[in-house]
Amino acid sequence: MTVSFWQQRAREPDLACDVAIVGAGIIGCSTAYWLHRLRPSLRVLLLDAGQVASGASGRNAGFLIQGTATDYVTDQKKYGPERAKELWHLTRENRDLLVSELRPEVFHLEASGSMTVAGTREEDERLRASVSPMRYDGASVAYVTAADTNRRLRSQGFFGALYVSSGAMLDSVALVRHLADESKAEVLPHHPVLELDERADQVTLETPVRRVRAAQVVLAMNAYTPKLVPELGKMVRPVRAQMLATAPLLPRWLHVPAYTHEGYFYIRQLVDGTVLLGGARHLHRVKEVGYKDETTPDLQADLEAYLHHYFPQRADVQVVRRWSGVMGFSPDGLPIWGPVPGHNRTLWAGGFTGHGMSFGFRFGMMMAELTMGYTHAEYADLFASTRFIKPPRQAVSKAS
Ligand SMILES: Cc1cc2nc3c(=O)[nH]c(=O)nc-3n(C[C@H](O)[C@H](O)[C@H](O)COP(=O)(O)OP(=O)(O)OC[C@H]3O[C@@H](n4cnc5c(N)ncnc54)[C@H](O)[C@@H]3O)c2cc1C
Which of 31, 158, 226, 339 has its CA 20 to 30 A from that of 132? Predict the structure, then answer.
């Protein structure tokens, strides 16, 4: 994006603030909310290229999945037992804080529990094996047999499932708008940040509308972070996800969000009967990358085929909306925060890898604490970008 001489000359007056947050999605708005809770006297500006929740935060399925996308046994192997437990607890805290801090009726939170449903026998075995370590680590879960899973979801062909009592679902746009309101931050929509310049005790953000000066900056742009800071392209890459919504199907039969086939398909139903269905990205990996906001007939056909296959009695339903959104994927599947390279007053957060709603509100608390200089904020080590920085060769050989 370029700005002409005339546009530049006609810009609005500069604004100054204590903290400027770039990106008004779940992470930016949660960070603003917790900054206000920590220090209400701060002047916080929330800038977005579009408006509040115009990115992935306003385009998702609204699942509050507990833990990560994968089963607990796999998480324990991949991240180690301690980190798997921490991740679980963070998502649980995230969900509990949404209920205790905010007005959940505003964003239609349904404390329904959730079902993680196996699409293969092998996945079923992993889900079943996850029950005991999950319970040991404090999770309230139950294994559901294939017959009971299909009875409960009125489906056919699924293997077993895990019922997770703390899982939930909500309206993401309503939540993010609520957070923006409650944060008392000044929201600046249609302010795409084109340049970031840090000098001495101040950071300057250039937008086509005005210049913003801030003592500190948080970049909460997720997939879009590398567009402003290309070096961070190593840590966050843009991946597309698609969804559809059907005409209302009444009476409502799905009362829990169902996350199936390792999370590659996800389906839920609203109180009015509307079915929301997303996924199938794994069948189109080459195409489903980048920043293009568009749906594709092939992937959408796969979503409909899934509905026909697993929910045959709902097969003649009319699709009323199809959409896409851009997610930020990290190399290890976990979110990342860190200082922007070469900057002292600018932090960034991203790489939520398709699960930002499950992490976001609690993650925003951590970002607010880090912005305020609490370097020992809980969970900060778990998500720090330093995990991708290799120790110098010499240090490795000494240690081994
Ligand atoms: C189809 C789909 C389904 C999903 N389902 C779920 C789900 O059910 N549960 C779940 O937990 N997660 C889900 N996710 C993932 C979740 O939506 C994201 O992880 C989360 O929204 C990321 O939030 P964010 O605030 O980091 O980023 P975003 O919401 O993407 O916010 C980034 C913001 O930055 C703004 N921005 C970008 N560039 C600039 C710039 N230069 N200047 C100013 N502003 C800028 C954008 O306009 C945007 O508003 C889904 C995602 C998609 C796409």
Answer: 158
How crowded is residue 372: how many other Cβ atoms within 10 Å of its Cβ?
A: 16
CATH class of 92-168+236-329: alpha beta
Q: CATH 3.30.9.10 spans which residues of the chain?
A: 92-168+236-329
- Exposure string of 306-344, with b = 16+ CB inside 10 Å and e = fewer, is bbeebbeebeebeeeebebbbbbbbeebbbbbbebeebe
Mark the ranges of the chain whose per-residue pLDDT is less than 50: 399-400
Q: Whose CA is nearest to atom 34 of ligand 1?
A: 23
Q: What is the pLDDT of residue 400?
A: 42
Could you give the C-alpha distances from 310 to 117, 283, 284, 314, in angstroms and in order?
12, 17, 20, 9
Task: Tell me how far the alpha carbon of residue 127 lies from the centroid of ligand 1, in angstroms.
Answer: 28
What pTM was computed for the model? 0.96
Ligand 1 pocket, 336 CB below 6 A? Answer: no
Ligand 1 in reach of 150 Cβ (< 6 A): no
By the 8 A CB rule, do 279 and 265 touch? yes
338/284 Cα distance (integer angstroms): 31
Q: Which residue ranges does the chain devote to CATH 3.50.50.60?
A: 5-58+174-235+332-387
User: Is ligand 1 within 6 A of the CB of residue 358?
Assistant: yes
Ligand 1 atom, smallest distance to 26 CA? 25
Q: Is 364 in the pocket of ligand 1 (CB under 6 A)?
A: no
User: 22-37 pLDDT, tens per residue?
Assistant: 999 999 999 999 999 9
Homologous superfamily of the 5-58+174-235+332-387 domain (CATH)? FAD/NAD(P)-binding domain (3.50.50.60)
